[in-house]
Amino acid sequence: MDLQTENAQLKEKIADYQLILSSMSAPVIESFLAQVVLVPLTGILTLERINNIDQDIFDYVAANPHSECMIIDFTGIDVSDFDYIDLHTLTERFEKLNKTLSLMGIRVLHSGMNPDVVHHFITTGYSFPSESFPSFRTALQQLVRDGYKQAF
């Protein structure tokens, strides 16, 4: 195989991988509690991926206006996942997402943030007040105490 052909094949592979990465988001998963959904974040966060996650969340909320509470879970996120995005941009985007959802009447909870992630968020000026829990389970337990009922 000559270099030109190999180069063309590698460029095609790169384009395919970029397409795969750009389509990655985070699922919006209904929980056993009525009107409560989970958005589990995992893996490397890039600006493009954050845009996709935001769009998927807003699309879900538009299609499911009965949603009352969203738990954004950071259990699958480590500080090394921030290597491809400016931390100030990341925290600004999460603040904007939280404010937008709150203005839409959706209660936003965070769960699963490890101490290093919290430290990075705080040192970059993250200031939007939100309820945070050590795990998805403890967030759900609080919601049950707050009167959220099981979906039937």
Structure keywords:
152 residues; alpha/beta; Transcription Regulator spoIIAA; globular
In short:
This protein is of the alpha/beta class and 152 residues long.
Task: Show the helix and strand layout.
Elements (H helix, E strand, L loop, with lengths): L2 H21 L5 E2 L5 E7 L4 H17 L5 E8 L10 H17 L3 E5 L3 H9 L7 E3 L2 H10 L7
Parallel strand pairs: 2-3, 3-4, 4-5
Antiparallel strand pairs: 1-2
Helix pairs in contact: 2-3
Structure description:
The chain is of the alpha/beta class and 152 residues long. It has one domain: STAS domain (Transcription Regulator spoIIAA), CATH 3.30.750.24. Helix content is 49%, strand content 16%. It is built from five helices and five strands. Strands 1-2-3-4-5 form a five-stranded mixed beta sheet. Helix 4 links the parallel strand 4 and strand 5. The longest helix is centred in the first third of the chain and has 21 residues. The protein is globular, with a radius of gyration of 18 Å. It starts with a helix and ends in a 7-residue tail after the last helix.
Q: Specify the biggest β-sheet.
A: 5 strands, mixed
CATH architecture assignment name: 2-Layer Sandwich
Structural class of the helix and strand makeup? alpha/beta
Succession of helices and strands: HEEHEHEHEH
Average pLDDT level:
89
CATH fold descriptor:
Transcription Regulator spoIIAA
Approximately what portion of the residues adopt beta-strand conformation?
Answer: 15-25%
Major β-sheet strand ordering: 1-2-3-4-5
Number of helices: 5
